[in-house]
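The authors assume throughout that readers already know how a fold can be written as discrete tokens. For illustration, here is how one protein appears when written out as sequence plus structure tokens.
>
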Amino acid sequence: MFQAPRGTADILPEEQGYWRFCRSKARETATSFGYRRIDTPLFEDARLFVRGVGELTDIVEKETYTFEDRGGDLLTLRPEGTAPVCRAYLEHGMSNLPQPVRLYYVCPAFRYERPQSGRSRQHHQFGIEVLGDGDAIIDAEVIEVAWRFLGSVGLSDLELSINSIGDGECRPQYIRTLQDHYRQHSGILCHDCTRRLEHNPLRLLDCKVDSCQPVIGGAPHSVDYLCDACDAHWSSLRGHLFALGLPYAVNHRLVRGFDYYTRTVFEVTPPVEGSQTTIVGGGRYDGLIEELGGKPTPGIGFGMGIDRVILNLKRQEVAPPEYRDTKVLVAHLGEAAKAEAVKLASKLRQAGTAALVGPAERGLRSQLRYASAIDATHAVIIGDDELAKGVVVLRDLSKSAQHEVDPDRLVQELQSAGGNGC
């Protein structure tokens, strides 16, 4: 038998309540802050991620799904949302719009990595990007969007971690100091850190290998090497977070995994131990638009794993609200009634109510059992007696109550009984 590819999962009907809830709250939260939705293609020119994410990052080196199509173009399935949004910003001249431009997206992303709890090869992201404003007030806004969303779905006991990794003015000095520190301990570094020491030194602080932890513990802190402008930005951000009442902790090991980050980086994690617990990760990327061929344009955003949000909702035993759209089964007894049931179900659908005809060649009791099995809210019953009287029987399946209704008033009756809400 065929199975879903390793690292992917089917979202079955009984799970859809969580997804519907999270997507709805994502849209609701983002639009309340003035963000507009954008959808980018599932795959992009592979060079976009090499230039944007970084050629020597783990994502580009080890984790992308990159392939040559039949036309000879090298394409990559989207591993993250920021670079595609920045490409769209440039391609469609969004720099000519009033700045900043606020965008959000909900989309699948793909990374080839070892599947484990909270990490899949296909996952789903809720992300936002703000382009065209470098003030720390925007950093605080982006962090607040993430925090308010997580609160709106019911997650608690979360920890917000922040750090500043400086910019092109001050970071080089910090990196040299960091490399000097690590070279003193080169004999005990893991294989990946030995490579990162020369090619991607900030990622040294993100290593999870036990032998590297003492070296990380003694590493210099990036915030101690900030230039005046970055230090002022860092101080301003912390002031805004305090004013917003957002609790945070400074994490000197926090660097994130992409080359494009500058100044602010942040994460939100739940009270669960493990290396794959981060729900939200983001930060500022003031050099990315320029790296992709545009004019210098500040930017900041985050990516949030919806899969991990749902995993933590289950861990904290937070159930999504029960959405019960009106769903009608039209049960029929006899050939004439079956023909009428087909017409009536079609009429209900055209009026905006979900409706289906009961299984043929089954008795009334069997059709009503089927209605319960598919979670129908109502049943409409038509038989010879109803046809003769010019009525139908409307049964509320949750109350086991029924009454006769004129077919012309059936839509109105269903709307007054609950409509299409939740």
Observations:
- The chain has 15 helices and 16 strands.
